[in-house]
Specification:
The chain is α/β, with parallel strands linked by helices. It is built from eight helices and eleven strands.
Length: about 220
Protein backbone atom coordinates (compact mmCIF):
# COMPACT_ATOMS: atom_id res chain seq x y z
CA UNK A 1 0.00 0.00 0.00
CA UNK A 2 1.24 3.48 -0.84
CA UNK A 3 0.73 6.75 1.03
CA UNK A 4 1.44 10.43 0.41
CA UNK A 5 2.14 12.86 3.26
CA UNK A 6 1.86 16.59 2.49
CA UNK A 7 2.97 18.48 5.60
CA UNK A 8 5.29 21.50 5.92
CA UNK A 9 6.23 20.92 9.57
CA UNK A 10 9.48 18.99 9.20
CA UNK A 11 9.22 17.14 12.52
CA UNK A 12 5.62 16.08 11.97
CA UNK A 13 6.38 15.14 8.35
CA UNK A 14 9.18 12.87 9.57
CA UNK A 15 6.99 11.36 12.31
CA UNK A 16 4.21 10.58 9.84
CA UNK A 17 6.70 9.03 7.42
CA UNK A 18 8.11 6.75 10.12
CA UNK A 19 4.71 5.74 11.50
CA UNK A 20 3.28 4.89 8.08
CA UNK A 21 6.39 2.95 7.04
CA UNK A 22 6.22 0.99 10.31
CA UNK A 23 2.56 0.23 9.47
CA UNK A 24 3.59 -1.31 6.15
CA UNK A 25 3.16 1.58 3.71
CA UNK A 26 5.50 2.82 1.01
CA UNK A 27 5.52 6.58 1.64
CA UNK A 28 6.21 9.69 -0.43
CA UNK A 29 6.36 13.11 1.25
CA UNK A 30 6.01 16.74 0.20
CA UNK A 31 6.54 19.92 2.22
CA UNK A 32 4.50 22.39 0.16
CA UNK A 33 1.22 22.44 -1.72
CA UNK A 34 2.63 22.62 -5.22
CA UNK A 35 4.81 19.53 -4.82
CA UNK A 36 2.01 17.72 -3.01
CA UNK A 37 -0.47 18.54 -5.76
CA UNK A 38 1.93 17.30 -8.45
CA UNK A 39 2.58 14.00 -6.69
CA UNK A 40 -1.11 13.38 -6.00
CA UNK A 41 -1.99 14.23 -9.58
CA UNK A 42 0.62 11.99 -11.20
CA UNK A 43 1.14 9.05 -8.83
CA UNK A 44 -1.35 6.42 -7.59
CA UNK A 45 -1.87 6.50 -3.81
CA UNK A 46 -4.01 4.40 -1.51
CA UNK A 47 -4.22 7.20 1.08
CA UNK A 48 -3.16 10.86 1.39
CA UNK A 49 -2.49 12.81 4.59
CA UNK A 50 -2.92 16.49 3.67
CA UNK A 51 -2.23 19.51 5.89
CA UNK A 52 -4.40 22.53 5.15
CA UNK A 53 -1.91 25.29 6.05
CA UNK A 54 0.73 24.75 3.37
CA UNK A 55 3.15 27.15 1.64
CA UNK A 56 2.88 27.90 -2.11
CA UNK A 57 -0.58 26.32 -2.39
CA UNK A 58 -3.02 25.72 0.48
CA UNK A 59 -4.38 22.25 1.18
CA UNK A 60 -7.99 23.11 0.28
CA UNK A 61 -6.91 24.28 -3.18
CA UNK A 62 -4.78 21.15 -3.63
CA UNK A 63 -7.72 18.93 -2.73
CA UNK A 64 -10.18 20.83 -4.92
CA UNK A 65 -7.91 20.49 -7.94
CA UNK A 66 -7.40 16.76 -7.33
CA UNK A 67 -11.15 16.21 -7.19
CA UNK A 68 -11.73 18.31 -10.31
CA UNK A 69 -9.23 16.04 -12.04
CA UNK A 70 -11.25 13.04 -10.79
CA UNK A 71 -8.51 11.86 -8.42
CA UNK A 72 -10.45 9.57 -6.09
CA UNK A 73 -7.88 8.43 -3.50
CA UNK A 74 -8.97 8.79 0.14
CA UNK A 75 -7.73 12.03 1.71
CA UNK A 76 -7.43 12.78 5.44
CA UNK A 77 -6.92 16.48 6.14
CA UNK A 78 -5.01 17.84 9.13
CA UNK A 79 -6.38 21.03 10.68
CA UNK A 80 -5.51 23.41 13.51
CA UNK A 81 -7.43 22.55 16.70
CA UNK A 82 -9.58 25.72 16.78
CA UNK A 83 -10.27 26.02 13.05
CA UNK A 84 -13.65 24.30 12.72
CA UNK A 85 -14.13 26.24 9.50
CA UNK A 86 -11.15 24.38 8.02
CA UNK A 87 -12.90 21.09 8.69
CA UNK A 88 -16.05 22.24 6.93
CA UNK A 89 -14.09 23.61 3.96
CA UNK A 90 -12.04 20.43 3.74
CA UNK A 91 -15.05 18.12 3.74
CA UNK A 92 -16.81 20.30 1.17
CA UNK A 93 -13.68 20.17 -1.01
CA UNK A 94 -13.79 16.36 -1.04
CA UNK A 95 -11.91 15.17 2.06
CA UNK A 96 -12.88 11.75 3.40
CA UNK A 97 -11.89 12.45 7.00
CA UNK A 98 -10.16 15.06 9.15
CA UNK A 99 -8.01 15.17 12.26
CA UNK A 100 -7.26 18.19 14.42
CA UNK A 101 -3.74 18.98 15.60
CA UNK A 102 -2.29 17.93 17.94
CA UNK A 103 -3.34 14.32 17.55
CA UNK A 104 -2.30 10.86 18.69
CA UNK A 105 -0.50 8.92 15.97
CA UNK A 106 -2.46 5.76 16.77
CA UNK A 107 -5.71 7.58 16.02
CA UNK A 108 -4.36 8.76 12.68
CA UNK A 109 -3.23 5.24 11.78
CA UNK A 110 -6.67 3.86 12.71
CA UNK A 111 -8.30 6.41 10.41
CA UNK A 112 -5.83 5.57 7.65
CA UNK A 113 -6.61 1.86 7.92
CA UNK A 114 -10.35 2.55 7.90
CA UNK A 115 -10.16 4.71 4.77
CA UNK A 116 -7.98 2.20 2.91
CA UNK A 117 -10.39 -0.62 3.78
CA UNK A 118 -13.47 1.34 2.76
CA UNK A 119 -11.89 2.39 -0.53
CA UNK A 120 -11.39 -1.27 -1.43
CA UNK A 121 -14.84 -2.34 -0.18
CA UNK A 122 -14.00 -3.87 3.22
CA UNK A 123 -15.82 -2.92 6.41
CA UNK A 124 -14.05 -5.17 8.93
CA UNK A 125 -10.48 -4.85 10.17
CA UNK A 126 -9.79 -8.47 9.20
CA UNK A 127 -9.71 -9.61 5.57
CA UNK A 128 -9.87 -13.33 4.74
CA UNK A 129 -8.90 -15.18 1.58
CA UNK A 130 -9.38 -18.89 2.15
CA UNK A 131 -7.11 -19.93 5.03
CA UNK A 132 -5.17 -16.64 4.91
CA UNK A 133 -6.20 -13.82 7.22
CA UNK A 134 -4.89 -10.25 7.30
CA UNK A 135 -5.43 -8.25 10.48
CA UNK A 136 -5.13 -4.68 9.23
CA UNK A 137 -5.04 -3.32 12.79
CA UNK A 138 -1.95 -5.25 13.86
CA UNK A 139 -0.47 -5.72 10.35
CA UNK A 140 -0.30 -9.47 10.99
CA UNK A 141 -0.92 -12.30 8.56
CA UNK A 142 -1.95 -15.79 9.65
CA UNK A 143 -2.63 -18.97 7.71
CA UNK A 144 -4.93 -21.54 9.30
CA UNK A 145 -4.42 -19.65 12.56
CA UNK A 146 -0.63 -19.76 12.49
CA UNK A 147 1.45 -16.57 12.07
CA UNK A 148 3.18 -16.06 8.72
CA UNK A 149 6.54 -14.28 8.79
CA UNK A 150 6.86 -11.83 5.90
CA UNK A 151 9.38 -9.23 4.80
CA UNK A 152 8.10 -5.66 4.40
CA UNK A 153 7.78 -6.01 0.63
CA UNK A 154 6.09 -9.41 0.88
CA UNK A 155 3.62 -7.93 3.35
CA UNK A 156 2.84 -4.93 1.14
CA UNK A 157 2.26 -7.17 -1.87
CA UNK A 158 0.03 -9.62 -0.03
CA UNK A 159 -1.88 -6.83 1.73
CA UNK A 160 -2.61 -5.07 -1.57
CA UNK A 161 -3.83 -8.28 -3.20
CA UNK A 162 -6.00 -9.09 -0.19
CA UNK A 163 -7.53 -5.62 -0.07
CA UNK A 164 -8.45 -6.15 -3.72
CA UNK A 165 -9.31 -9.85 -3.48
CA UNK A 166 -11.32 -11.31 -6.33
CA UNK A 167 -9.97 -8.70 -8.77
CA UNK A 168 -7.13 -9.26 -11.22
CA UNK A 169 -4.27 -6.92 -10.32
CA UNK A 170 -1.63 -6.25 -12.98
CA UNK A 171 2.10 -6.28 -12.33
CA UNK A 172 2.23 -2.59 -13.22
CA UNK A 173 -0.40 -1.74 -10.61
CA UNK A 174 1.45 -3.76 -7.98
CA UNK A 175 4.72 -1.99 -8.73
CA UNK A 176 3.00 1.42 -8.54
CA UNK A 177 1.48 0.65 -5.14
CA UNK A 178 4.40 -1.21 -3.54
CA UNK A 179 7.21 1.30 -3.96
CA UNK A 180 7.74 4.98 -3.30
CA UNK A 181 8.75 7.30 -6.14
CA UNK A 182 12.49 7.07 -5.44
CA UNK A 183 12.63 3.27 -5.56
CA UNK A 184 14.23 1.61 -8.59
CA UNK A 185 11.11 -0.14 -9.83
CA UNK A 186 11.42 -3.46 -11.60
CA UNK A 187 8.30 -5.47 -12.38
CA UNK A 188 10.37 -8.67 -12.42
CA UNK A 189 10.72 -8.43 -8.64
CA UNK A 190 6.96 -8.94 -8.35
CA UNK A 191 7.33 -12.49 -9.65
CA UNK A 192 10.08 -13.10 -7.10
CA UNK A 193 7.88 -11.92 -4.23
CA UNK A 194 4.91 -13.94 -5.52
CA UNK A 195 7.14 -17.02 -5.56
CA UNK A 196 8.23 -16.38 -1.96
CA UNK A 197 4.65 -15.87 -0.81
CA UNK A 198 3.53 -19.14 -2.40
CA UNK A 199 6.09 -20.94 -0.25
CA UNK A 200 4.63 -19.39 2.90
CA UNK A 201 0.89 -19.70 2.18
CA UNK A 202 -1.05 -22.24 0.06
CA UNK A 203 0.09 -21.69 -3.52
CA UNK A 204 -3.40 -21.79 -5.01
CA UNK A 205 -4.57 -18.78 -2.98
CA UNK A 206 -2.61 -16.46 -5.30
CA UNK A 207 -3.71 -17.22 -8.85
CA UNK A 208 -1.76 -16.21 -11.94
CA UNK A 209 -4.04 -14.87 -14.67
CA UNK A 210 -1.90 -15.29 -17.75
CA UNK A 211 -1.10 -12.03 -19.49
CA UNK A 212 -3.04 -9.96 -16.97
CA UNK A 213 -1.59 -10.34 -13.47
CA UNK A 214 -2.58 -11.95 -10.18
CA UNK A 215 -5.74 -12.53 -8.19
CA UNK A 216 -6.37 -13.63 -4.61
CA UNK A 217 -8.86 -16.50 -4.45
CA UNK A 218 -10.64 -18.37 -1.69
CA UNK A 219 -8.71 -21.54 -2.53
CA UNK A 220 -9.20 -24.62 -4.70
CA UNK A 221 -12.99 -24.66 -4.32
CA UNK A 222 -13.43 -21.25 -5.91
CA UNK A 223 -14.79 -21.37 -9.43
Amino acid sequence: MRALVVEDDKDLNRQLLTALEDAGFAVDTASDGEEGYFLGDTEPYDIVILDIGLPKMDGISVLEQWRRSDRKMPVIILTARDRWSDKVAGMDAGADDYLAKPFHMEELLARVRAQVRRASGHAKSEIECGPVRLDTKSARVTCEGLPVKLTSHEFRLLAYLMHHNGRVVSRTELVEHLYDQDFDRDSNTIEVFIGRLRKKIPGDVIQTVRGLGYRMSQGPDEA
